[in-house]
Amino acid sequence: MGKKYVVRLTSEERKRLNELVSKGRASARKIGRARVLLKVDSDGANWTDQQAADAFGMRANTVADIRQRFVEEGLDGALERKQPDDPPRRRKLDGAGEARLIAMACGEAPEGRARWTLRLLAGQLVELAIVDGISHETVRRTLKKTS
User: Fold this and answer.
1) At 4, is the secondary structure helix, strand, or coil?
2) Rounded to an integer, what distance in angstroms lies between the CA atom of residue 109 and that of residue 61?
3) For residue 34, which of 76, 5, 84 has the smallest C-alpha distance?
4) What are phi and psi for residue 118, nearest 5 degrees?
5) What is the distance between the alpha carbons of residues 72 and 70, in angstroms, rounded to a whole number?
6) How far is CA 118 from the centre of its chain?
7) Would you say the pTM of this structure is higher than 0.90?
8) 3-state SS assignment for residue 136
9) pLDDT tens, 32-78?
10) Could you give the CA distance from residue 45 to residue 38 in angstroms, rounded to a whole number?
11) Coil, strand, or helix at residue 31?
12) Which pLDDT does position 147 carry in this prediction?
């Protein structure tokens, strides 16, 4: 069975990868991917995925993924880490919510209190329907970021 994604490096790409590997100034992941691309190049060493995996201490599927990303996204796409489409979690407070929080914290404390506490601020944000729910720790981080 032939390879679905065939890596064919241009002379400029090959030169860039060789420089990257020889200088050793990049991350270990990037250097490893560069070595894999140099070995699986059909115009160069033309190693199989399994040969490259055994030589560089990775799985054959990883080599196949590097090969696929090179064909689909180019050299930079194969070397760099894939960026997630969305952040792991949505932010609780957007810019407007942060502005309201800061305005509350700088304003008068509630009746019977000398000053705002983080838990009071969190409760007030929920009470005013700025957010559905928020922890006092998120309030602390937001206020620390802005001070």
Assistant:
1) coil
2) 59
3) 76
4) -60, -40
5) 6
6) 30
7) no
8) helix
9) 999 999 999 999 899 999 999 999 999 999 999 999 999 999 999 99
10) 7
11) helix
12) 67
CA 38 to each of CA 24, 79, 117: distance values in angstroms, whole numbers, following the listed order: 15, 12, 59
Q: Which residue from 14, 21, 16, 7 is spatially nearest to 65, judged by alpha carbons?
A: 7
If we measure between CA atoms, which residue out of 34, 30, 32 comes closest to residue 9? 34
CA pair distance 25, 89, nearest whole angstrom: 33
Is the pLDDT score of 23 beyond 90? yes
Six-digit token string for 106: 């700088």
Residue 1 has pLDDT above 90, yes or no: no
Nearest to 100 by CA among 37, 51, 46, 146: 146
The torsion angle over the Cα atoms of residues 99, 100, 105 and 106, rounded to 10 degrees, is 70
Report CA 63 to chain centroid distance, whole Å: 20
Residues 145 and 147: their CA atoms lie apart, in Å, by 6
Is the pLDDT assigned to residue 98 strictly greater than 80?
Answer: yes
Q: For the packed helices 11-23 and 60-79, what is the interaxial angle rounded to 10 degrees?
A: 100
